[in-house]
Amino acid sequence: MTRREAVTHVAWILGGVFSAPTIQAMNRWQEMSLSPNAVHQTGAFLTETQHEIMARVADLIIPRTDTPGAVDAGVPDFMEVMLRDCYKKPAQDAFLMGVDGLEKKGFLKLSPGEQTATLRQIEADAPKDGSPSFWLITKELTLLVYYTSEAGIKASFDYQPIPGRFEAIKIKPGQKDFMYGNQA
Amino acid sequence: MNLNIKADQGQTYDAIVVGSGMTGGWAAKELTEKGLKVLMLERGYEIKHVEDYKTAFKDPWEFEHRGKISNVAAEEHYATMYFSAKEGSQYMFTNDKEHPYVQKRPFNWIRAYHTGGKSLVWGKHTYRWNQEDFLANAKQGIGIDWPIRYEDLVPWYSYVEKFVGISGQAEKLAVLPDSHFQPGMAMTAPEIHLKNSVAQKLNRPITIGRVAHLTNPQPWHTALGRASCQFRNRCTRGCPFGAYFSSLAATLPAARQTNRLTVVHNAIVQEIILDDKAQKAKGVRVIDQNTMEVREFYAKVIFLNAGTIGSTSILMNSKSARFPNGLGNDSDQLGRNLMDHHLAIGARADIDGFENDYYFGARPGSLYIPRFRNWGNDKRDYLRGFGYQGGASRADWSRGAAETGFGADFKKKMTQPGPWKINLSGFGEVLPDPNNRFYLDNNQLDKWGQPQVVFDADFGENERAMRKDIMNDGAEMLEAAGFKNVVAYDNPVAHMGLGIHEMGTARMGKDPKTSVLNKFNQVHACKNVFVTDGSGMTSASNVNPSLTYMALTARAADHAVAQLKARNL
Ligand SMILES: Cc1cc2nc3c(=O)[nH]c(=O)nc-3n(C[C@H](O)[C@H](O)[C@H](O)COP(=O)(O)OP(=O)(O)OC[C@H]3O[C@@H](n4cnc5c(N)ncnc54)[C@H](O)[C@@H]3O)c2cc1C
Ligand code: SF4
Questions:
Q1: A38 CA to centre of ligand 1 in angstroms
Q2: How far apart are CA B265 and CA B73, in angstroms?
Q3: Cα–Cα distance between B342 and B430 in angstroms, integer?
Q4: Which end of chain B is more exposed for a tag (fewer CB within 10 A), N or C?
């Protein structure tokens, strides 16, 4: 069985547990050969400037409000770990190409409004078929890392590691999503 | 390989049980409780209940890749990825790279080589088979007739169910006989709506899934240290509460209490040693998975509980002058009639409304829709039937990646429960077919010098015809409930093995010419060898099989002890 078939299985079986982009990301295993330095490579994946760019992008996706933002939750560093260990070369390349594009635009020197507009444009231009793109990978990783971080979970959700019961309830106004820590 | 065989003269037992999983646990419990000195041999490493559930209490941020599978893990777990694609449970599944097998036709061999076997990772859906399941082969001229009937198993079902602890709802349906239940788990609002709509419009019952979780533990459960389910749904990381049934939480502690159980880990049973004169098994030959040391152990009775493929492989590997093609293989049925349940097919939908409905807790179970095809007055152009497992839940933050937008409002939105979604996943019966088989390849060896398993099996016309109904009927029910964006799906690459209900490769039967085991799971031609895992199944039903394996094991153990006492073994 090929990797593509295998991951398609995951998608079908778990039906709805993974977002479409996550499944697509897993799908990429198929085309990608395992390159030894893609697995436990030490040292930085991005240059310092690129790292700064990604920190800014992540913070635009999940900004600091009355709760911590992406950078507070350590998204940029973790993003690199995830890219290195869980994505294969074509996805890494697509991602790096996107970072490169932002670097060439002088992203860090743009005003906050221009930065947001740039990302809106990138989002609008991103392929809708779920194929690996800078935007998809970035957003997926930002959400994953933020909403599974201690800061992100505790600030965003009603975290219940041992609920003790299961019952149908009515929602209260402003009800936060319950999180049970059972996704790993 | 170290061929210096150490014969354990002092190591003679009344019974040897091969495998510590779902059925091995039952064999050990029953045999020790009936007074036998038992040796359990487990090929995998040791997992100790509670203390070795090393990820059970980890929070999401404590995982190296936040639950995502790494490239390295993906290479090692290619076949088991569907169920071990999470960091928390990876260690509970066998590394495929280290334990290779051959797929002549595509097959997923999903294994759990360690104490407790797959009983530590199973989905815990627990259903009795019905009367028709044991009659269908004979009535339809498929395969061979079962040597037993539903009624033979009823007392053993009851016996096993009370010990296991099963939550569920009695429904008095002939198609899905009731078990002894603890309180069933709750349904969510859209699920109740689906249940009512489908009952009214299509006259099909929907019940809460029957799962092996304690919801009202009885004294015999708490005596073993088992407690009520905490609804964390982290079960595949091991349950520190002993709330779901596993060998580790239930049968092994019971067997240990007798002081008659010895467990040896890392012991790969290669073959059964035959006493040529007596035409009986006298022991087993074992290779240590770490040291490669070869040892022999002796006993009066041998129970094979290594999982269907594992047990049948051991029989195949046990060659002698009397059995040149494998122990008990006079019928040439060893390895044939490999069955599974077919899945990766069904329907899903979005649910509008129910915005004010939510739920507290993570339910380790789902709805169950019992078989309705080829049942009662329903007649299809294929044989047998299928059921569904599924349920409705609200989408979480992970929906965000597919949605447009980012920034403060988007961030806030992700903290609130998303829209409801529902999925119904079908499980269909597979017919026995002698050409669906596996065999051993003596030219391709694993690192312990053991022949690799070659799978050569696929779904047939009957399964393919059934799949159309599984899709359409699933969609029809979701539409009956008025749900939106109904999508009926069939994964074109679904194939054997993925159901992890592999069974049938040493079938039971009345006639030694056409079957390997008799009605008590004894090898016809070698009566002191019992095979009581899925190997013995003569047909597959469409409901999950483990309860039936357990009932058969308890029944066989009872018979074995009676025969030993009568000096017939
Ligand atoms: C993800 C998943 C979900 C499932 N869901 C359900 C469900 O909802 N309902 C249901 O009824 N069933 C379910 N199953 C199937 C269920 O787990 C099996 O039917 C059951 O565990 C089979 O019991 P067994 O004793 O035959 O094998 P196992 O439980 O696998 O135990 C076999 C043991 O034998 C050992 N062994 C193998 N070979 C050797 C050897 N040569 N020497 C020594 N030891 C050996 C293995 O290491 C293992 O410990 C599921 C399985 C999985 C993986
Ligand atoms: S959901 Fe229940 S059975 Fe599963 S791990 Fe939690 S307490 Fe144990």
A1: 34
A2: 24
A3: 7
A4: N
DSSP-derived secondary structure letter, B47 = -
Indicate if the pLDDT at residue A125 is higher than 70: yes
Q: Which residues contact A42 (CB under 8 A, 6 or more apart)?
A: none
DSSP label of A183: -
Using the predicted structure, report yes or no on whether residue B3 has a pLDDT greater than 70: no
How far apart CA B155 and CA A67 sit, in angstroms, is: 59
- Per-residue confidence band for B10, with pLDDT thresholds at 50, 70 and 90: low
Chain mean position to CA B250: 16
Q: Pick from A29, A86, A176: which is nearest to B65 by CB?
A: A86
pLDDT at B2 over 70: no
Task: Give chain A positions within 8 Å (CB) of B346.
Answer: 15
Distance B244 CA to ligand 2 centre (A): 6
pLDDT tens per residue, range A90-124: 888 999 999 999 999 999 999 999 999 999 999 99
Please report the pLDDT score of residue A88 as a whole number: 84
Collect all residues with Cβ–Cβ distance below 8 Å to B486 and sequence separation of at least 6.
B347, B348, B349, B475, B478, B479
A142 to chain B: closest CA residue: B401
Mutate to test the pocket of ligand 2, among B120, B167, B229 (most ligand atoms within 8 A of CB): B229
Q: Which residues of A51-79 are buried (b: 16+ CB within 10 A; e: fewer)?
A: bebbbbbbbbbbbeeebbbbbbbbbbebb
Looking at the predicted structure, is the pLDDT value of residue B67 above 60? Answer: yes
Question: Which helix H or strand E contains B303, and what residues bound it?
Answer: strand B294-304
pLDDT of residue B477: 98
The share of chain A scoring above pLDDT 70, in percent, equals 76
Give chain B positions within 8 Å (CB) of A139: 400-401, 406
Contact A144 B398 (CB under 8 A): yes
Structure tokens at B536: 């013995």
Q: Which residues pair with B280 in a beta bridge?
A: B275
pLDDT at B8: 53
Q: If pLDDT is split at 50, 70 and 90, which confidence band does B77 have?
A: confident
What are the DSSP calls for B205-271, one per residue?
A: --EE--BSB-SS--HHHHTTT---------GGG--TT--B--IIIIIHHHHHTTT-EEEE-SEEEEE
Q: Which of A36-44's residues contact partners 24+ apart within 8 Å by CB, and which partners?
A: A38/A84, A38/A87, A38/A88, A38/A89, A38/A92, A38/B71, A39/A84, A39/A85, A39/B70, A39/B71, A39/B72, A40/A84, A40/A85, A40/B72, A41/A84, A44/A80
Residues within a 6 A CB radius of ligand 2: B 213, 229-235, 239, 241, 243-244, 364
Q: Is A8 helix (H, G, I), strand (E, B) or coil?
A: helix
B168, B208 contact by CB (below 8 A): yes
pLDDT band at B6 (very low <50, low <70, confident <90, very high): low
Q: Is B456 in contact with B105 (CB distance < 8 Å)? A: yes
